Amino acid sequence: MWIKICANTNLEDARAAADSGADAIGFVFASSPRRVTAEEVAVITAALPGNLKKIGVFGEHSFDEIVFTVRAAGLDGAQLHGGSDPLLAEKLRREFGSELFLIQTLHWNVNGDSAAAERDFRDGWRTIARHNSVDAVLLDAKTAAASGGTGTSFDWAPARAVLDEEGGELRVIVAGGLHAGNVAEAVALFSPWGVDVASGTERSPGKKDAKRIREFIAAARVAKRTHSRE
User: Fold this and answer.
1) Burial degree of 197 (CB within 10 A; 0-12, 13-18, 19+)
2) For residue 222, which phi and psi values (nearest 5 degrees)?
3) Which of 35, 70, 143, 216 has CA 20 to 30 A from 200's CA?
């Protein structure tokens, strides 16, 4: 089970995630209360273990902006969170090769019509699968106000049904409103390659709670072991 603790803003929180056994940490460069700069993140990543993946979360950023930030901030990966743009993913793959861990976010709109949300989700999945330029797909909730870090879960059952119907070999990371109390349910339903959490490990926006980080990671690991034995 690959576990990412996202939306870090300081070294103390990033170290807490690393010490608790996270596989990756995320830094948000998109518009957000948790937004950071490349200069701030460079100081943090330089002090972290080399085997910990450092992922940048990008919104409506250009190719040049992402390339600059990845290099300036000392990142190992990029999460494309501003919508599916296969050409952008392909350009980043050509630029960095396999050295960059590339994640494409696929949103489920929780505020709109459920049929439209399912249709858009299915179309997005097909687009990503057809171009196959990313290492994993992150499933997240989208609200009217934000497309991540909302603490809101999306409708898991129809999303799971779409994945079953579409098939394919894409690795799935589940996000959106996860916390220690519900991650086992998400793991049981999706059997995902990974899980991602932001607000579910915070005590306030941009500030982590070390206890919540430990509890989330422990719950995810137990759920994975339990599900694997079933």
Assistant:
1) buried
2) -65, -45
3) 70
Instruction: Please tell me the predicted confidence (pLDDT) of residue 111.
Output: 84
- Secondary structure of residue 56 in the 3-state scheme: strand
Please, which residues bridge with residue 77 across strands? 55, 101
**The two structure tokens encoding residue 160:** 């799971």
Q: What is the pLDDT of residue 82?
A: 83
* Reduced 3-state DSSP string for 87-132: HHHHHHHHHHHHHCEEEEEEEEECCCCHHHHHHHHHHHHHHHHHHC
Torsion, Cα of 21, 207, 50, 176 (10° steps) = 60
Pick out the chain residues at pLDDT < 70. 143-151, 229-230
| In the chain, beta strands by DSSP E | 2-5, 24-28, 53-58, 77-80, 101-109, 136-142, 172-174, 194-197, 202-204, 207-208
Q: Which domains does the chain have, with CATH numbers?
A: 2-229 (3.20.20.70)
